């Protein structure tokens, strides 16, 4: 099977498994796991932040960040397409008692002016606007990347109004590699950043949350409350470190392959629209009168797995476990299919 449902489906490579088996271990609740400490410090240093915290998942890292930044009732401002809103089980309400203000805008992106007009005035009737969340790349937005200027403009509005800014960087390395963005400069706009190691980077588990020492101290407390205080989890961190050493540069290959596949989809008369492809995600709509599920079934007959994101829309995600041969096959099927 060629599994294009998500970049989370990758299996650890032999090299990664060796790194995991050889990891130095300790009790991370005592902050004594050398492999976890090394990964946290490495990412904090790379992104110019004071500290890092290894978390079990992207969802956990995001939800911890929201809880640290907000008080019950506070308003979180994010895109209508945000993972923190749509796909984290209502976590911001369940864990933090936060309310959400969803911004319109194309492909999960928005502008500083959208944030400015969403911020509520000081008034006892209103929730307190406290946090803005940016998702880069935007998953539901088809892997769209945020222009750096827009991020800086949103950050300036946050600073002016005393709001915090969190980055859901589940696919941050896909974003950064597109134009070799400087990590520290990029990260300087954010109060906190979550980075997934288990998406396009190919580790089996793990996300790292970055911020100030004070923020991470509180995040560590919340992680324990959420049941996420792990013990000898250094073998998981070792997989993450291995991914950072070996799987960053190759992300460009996923991006090229995604473009190549999107181009043939674009020419297929049974496809109505393909979102512009900027990274490793392709989102497209089948033609009017056709159903995404029918195409998914057709692709499955050809050993290709894909994911329906709506009645007419489908997502393909390129990743480490897709070979050149697989891409050739997908291109051929996508050029020829009629369903
Ligand atoms: C943009 C984004 N944020 C967060 C997550 C959550 O990550 P996890 O599945 O590790 O909880 C995902 C998962 O796909 C995602 O796409």
Task: Describe, in plain words, how this protein is organized in 3D.
- The chain is α/β, with parallel strands linked by helices.
- It is built from 14 helices and 13 strands.
- The protein has 2 domains: 14-246, 3-Layer(aba) Sandwich (Aspartate Aminotransferase, domain 2); 250-336, Aspartate Aminotransferase, domain 1.
- It has helices spanning 14-21, 34-46, 58-69, 83-86, 91-96, 112-118, 148-161, 172-178, 183-187, 213-225, 234-246, 251-267, 292-301, 324-336, and strands at residues 2-3, 51-55, 75-79, 99-103, 129-135, 164-169, 192-196, 207-211, 271-274, 281-286, 304-305, 307-308, 313-317.
- A 7-stranded mixed beta sheet has the order 2-8-7-6-5-3-4, sandwiched between helices. A 4-stranded antiparallel beta sheet has the order 9-10-13-12, covered by helices on one side.
- Helix 3 crosses helix 10 and helix 6 runs parallel beside helix 7.
- The longest helix has 17 residues, at 251-267.
- It starts with a strand and ends with a helix.
- Pyridoxal-5'-phosphate (PLP) binds at residues 57-59, 62, 83, 135, 139, 168, 170, 196, 198, 207.
């Amino acid at each position: 099977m060629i599994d294009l449902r998500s970049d989370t489906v990758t299996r650890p490579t032999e090299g990664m498994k060796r790194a995991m088996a050889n990891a130095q271990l300790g009790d991370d609740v005592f902050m004594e796991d050398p492999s976890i400490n090394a990964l946290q410090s490495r990412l904090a240093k790379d992104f110019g932040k004071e500290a890092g915290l290894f978390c079990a998942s992207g969802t956990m890292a995001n939800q911890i960040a929201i809880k640290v930044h907000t008080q019950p009732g506070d308003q979180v401002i994010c895109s209508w397409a945000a993972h923190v809103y749509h796909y984290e089980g209502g976590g911001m309400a369940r864990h933090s008692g936060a309310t959400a203000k969803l911004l319109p805008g194309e492909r999960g992106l928005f502008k500083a002016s959208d944030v400015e007009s969403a911020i509520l005035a000081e008034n006892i009737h209103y929730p307190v606007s406290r946090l803005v969340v940016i998702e880069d790349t935007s998953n539901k937005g088809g892997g769209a990347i945020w222009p750096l200027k827009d991020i800086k403009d949103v950050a300036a509005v946050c600073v002016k109004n005393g709001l915090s800014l969190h980055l859901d960087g589940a696919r941050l390395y896909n974003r950064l590699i597109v134009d070799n963005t400087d990590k520290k400069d990029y990260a300087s706009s954010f109060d906190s950043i979550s980075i997934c190691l288990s998406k396009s980077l190919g580790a089996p588990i793990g996300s790292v949350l970055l911020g100030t020492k004070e923020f991470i101290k509180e995040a560590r407390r919340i992680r324990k409350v959420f049941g996420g205080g792990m013990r000898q989890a250094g073998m998981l961190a070792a997989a993450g470190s291995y991914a950072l050493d070996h799987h960053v540069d190759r992300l460009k290959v996923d991006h090229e392959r995604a473009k190549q596949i999107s181009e043939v989809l674009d020419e297929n008369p049974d496809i109505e629209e393909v979102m512009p492809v900027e990274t490793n995600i392709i989102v497209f709509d089948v033609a009017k009168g056709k159903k995404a599920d029918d195409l998914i079934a057709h692709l499955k007959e050809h050993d290709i797995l894909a994911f329906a994101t709506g009645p007419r829309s489908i997502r393909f995600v390129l990743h480490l476990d897709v070979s050149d041969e697989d891409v050739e096959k997908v291109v051929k099927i996508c050029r020829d299919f009629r369903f």
